[in-house]
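Lecture notes, structural biology module. Today: joint structure prediction for complexes of three components.
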Amino acid sequence: MNAIDPGFILGHYNYWVSIILIMIGLYALIAKRNLIKKFIGLNIIETAIFLFYISLGDVEGGIAPIITHDAAHDTVVYANPLPSAMMLTAIVVTLAMTALALGFTVLIYRQYGTLDAKKLMEQL
Amino acid sequence: MTPEIVYSAIPILAIVISSGAAILIGLFGNRVRYLNEGVSLGAAVIKFALVYSMYTSVMAGTIYICNPVALLPGVDFSFRVDPIGVYFAFLSSLLWIVTTIYSIGYMEALNEHARTRYFLSFAVCVASTIGIAFSGNLLTFFIFYEILTFATYPLVVHTQTKEALDAGRKYLAYLMSGGIVLLFAIITTYIMTGTLDFADGGILAGSAPVDTLRILFILFMIGVGVKTAIMPLHAWLPAAMVAPTPVSALLHAVAVVKAGAFGVLRVLFYVFGFDLTQEIGMGPFLAAMAAITIIIASIIALAQDNLKMRLAYSTVSQLSYIVLGAALLTPAGLLGGIAHMMHQAFMKITLFFCAGAIFALTGKKLISEMHGTAEDMPYTWAAFTIGGLGMIGIPLTCGFVTKWYLLVGSLQADAWVYIAVLLTSALLNAAYFLPPVYHAYFSPKTVARTHEHIQTTRPWIRLCLVGPPVCTAAAVIIFGIAPLAPYFPLDAARLIVAWIMGV
Amino acid sequence: MTDILSHLPILIVMIPFGCAYLTPFLGYLLKGWGRRITAIALFATLICSMLLVYQVIRNGPIIYHLSGVLPPLGIAFNADYLGSAISLLISGIVLLAVVYDKDRIAGLGEKKTLFFYTLVLLAAGAMQGIIITEDIFTLFILIEILSIAMYGLVAIRGSGRCLLAGYKYLLIGSAGSALILIGIGFLYITTGTLNMQIMAELLPPISGSMTVLAGLALLIAGICTKIGLFPLHVWMPDVYAYAPSIAPVLSTLALKAGVVALIRIVYTIFGPSLAIQPIPLYSVLALLGALAILICSVLAILQLDIRKMFAYSSGANIGCIVLGIGIATQLSVEGALLHMITHTAGKACLFLCADTILNQTGIRYVHEFRGLSSSMPYTMAAFLMASISIIGLPLSGGFMSKIYVAGAAIHAGHWIYAAILLIWTALTALYLFRILNSAYFYNAASTKPGRSHTRALPANEAPARVLVPLLLLGIACILLGFFVDLPMAVIRPAAELLIGGGL
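The predicted structure, tokenised, for the full assembly:
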């Protein structure tokens, strides 16, 4: 891998953004004590993964992958729709998970009166 | 001699009968009166019939084989009935009948609790003992060996007192550790030879250098030696005396400890093989351990006042006669050792039955309390005397026959020290068996009013308690008078020795 | 008729899913129908699974293309030997758990009971999908559905420590899912396809690239989170201890579905011929498995809460399965697959027993089990049978599977792993035997007043309807050891296919 080549590094900026976001999310997940902040960290990680996938679908010089009647089908280059489709599904899944987690948070707060992870883990 | 091989399901049937009995007892024992006792007795008789049906043909040269299930590549869950196996099974199944009758009497006399659990465990124990006798390879042997350990545990802790539970823990610790060492030795054998089947000439010949084989031998001996109560692995046996006497009688005088001795014989002659054992020279080592056990156990027995404890240490001592006989590696020694399996079983079970009868009918456990009780329990003490004389080795008892052949075997092996050991042991046996007998007959009573207690027990219970020891004592004398009659222990032992050494 | 048979793979997924949508609505409108729909749906799934297994054994794997579109564009479901066997296992045990549970989930309120059954159906459908899918992204989605359903099931009570356990589970599980998703992404970049078979064909030439290796590592790490392999098992104790009634049983099944996913990745996508360089994938898995066994067993011994003990025990058993996968021989994979079946049966039984005991007497700590065998004999009988299998005592299902893995370890030259399996048996015996000992051989400290349902059963014993699933599972554990050929009929071809690098 020619990692020193600046063109290579800059050309793959989508991966770098994803990685940085994942790291930020991971930090939040681990280091923050508030339950909601932890979960936001998780959400950031998920969002970074979505970005990563969607950026995979980009083809150089490709247009949006919608077949129209006036374009010449053989010569037009389309972007890859599959990663975006996958991520639609994954976003929905993440949404369900977020809803569940936030519901937990509400119930936890109602019962224990605190959202501090350290204090709560002592209860277990 | 080439055996004729018969494929038959009878070996499995014998085990299944007891297991089926166990299941019946477990499911319905609490509901139906006398179901436990009836099923146990019925299963005992059927099992003995099955074993006997194979006994004559196996002694004539047939081997029954049954391989139901393959466990591992090269290793089946297999059964093989050969002379030594059917001998052990015969011994166990015959004595089980006697012990079942005795158990029924004992439980009734003391009005014991948890009878269902007792008879259930008993049935599983005998099933696993027969399984050990009929196993065709080391893995099957090990499986039933461990089942026996677990099945005897509920019997040891039967009274559920703190003492019993502590004893149970010690029992389990010793036996399981032995089991793990045995398993390790078995795995090593598997790796070295790729098979675990018992073969007439052993399977280990030529598979490893002599030093490795010596270490393996020691591991095996530790594994089976725990059950055989070779010192210093014997401590579980006195502890297990907290169990009810029928348990001590059958299991710890006959089944469990004989399974250990049987294991020693199997390992020596069917895994290592007679020639290999001589080659690696571990015979003298084993014989020395046995001799030490014989002497020290007898010395400890002298100091015991509790009758069952004295008998326990006597068992430890007598078991090593078998090991000594095997370790001498001479025809006569081997003959004596194998014959002693059955002789000692009969003698010891007589003694334990008597001890239990005394406890059940008079409540006495200590020898010092038993002075003068021969007047109240004449048959019991007569049987005890015969058993004791057999232990000492007086002529006309089967104990004498054993001692004779062991002495001849020591001569054959040029090992004068063992002659001294055997004679000393006889003297020590006299020292701890004769005094109780003497005091029972000739001393004035130390504790009075035993007579009424006995008379209040119902006659059929008394019959169940006293009948079995009388029968087994009679057997002791019969085996001693006509040892060479066909199918008697000595004759069977001769056939077995011919197999082991001739093949 | 043939039409339905070819649709079986999708039916076993769609029936639970479809009824999961029906349940809340119909149950809300018609009282009590929520439970009935669940039971009917699960029963129908069971029938379909049985038909599926029968078909697969007769005709080989069934491949189903969603909407008739072929890969690489379409999503394929491939019901092969492994998938159909585990499918049968899952549908059977989920049905048993729900039948067991009929009245006990009361205390949640009518609406929440509906949601409970909805989540159960979702989880069941997702599990069925995971084990037969051939498309890796579908695998991810189904794992997510399963996980979310499990998070909900754990915390459904809405108050108490189960909330915290659920939240911890959610965080760790979601982190794992994120890892899986990235891993899938990496594999997608390098191969351009999502179908596992096609990936397997495309990967060999590029298998050395960092992307592929990173993807593999992330995938496996993510899945290990889901199956509770050490050191990612930390969610298990709290979840199992505080979740209501049958959630631990479903979680046990979910672990097995995760293991199937792991097998798909490690054997189907990366076959044994491939993943040796530059990282020794299988050795690492085997090592992790062995560590899991040892550490989780030790932790289990230290637990006082019985369900936490079982959770660590599950961790150790998952370690054993992964060890079998890691040794990567025909015999070891057979052992791992058999262990999946025997462990599920045993652990489900143990959890159901623990739940019954909790419901009847409120006992949840190990030291409270004294004398329980007299007040709850049938429950303890099932507990005993399941313990025998989980410890791996001879003649039970657990013994057979451990022997296979240990034998495979020896054949492959890994002595250490065989020794670890031995030690593990001893450790498991330690903590399970503790409970059995105090239940059977100690007298109850105090008699707790309990609800006696019928005069035929002792006080405190659960009603017959609850006992039947328990005893069925317990007997199945033992019978699996005797009739091991039945599961092997499916497992053997499954292992052959896997080792051969197929699906």
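Point to remember: Chain B touches chain C at residues 69, 71-73, 75, 117, 142-144, 146-147, 150, 154, 157, 160, 165, 168, 176, 180, 183-184, 187, 190-191 (CB under 8 Å).
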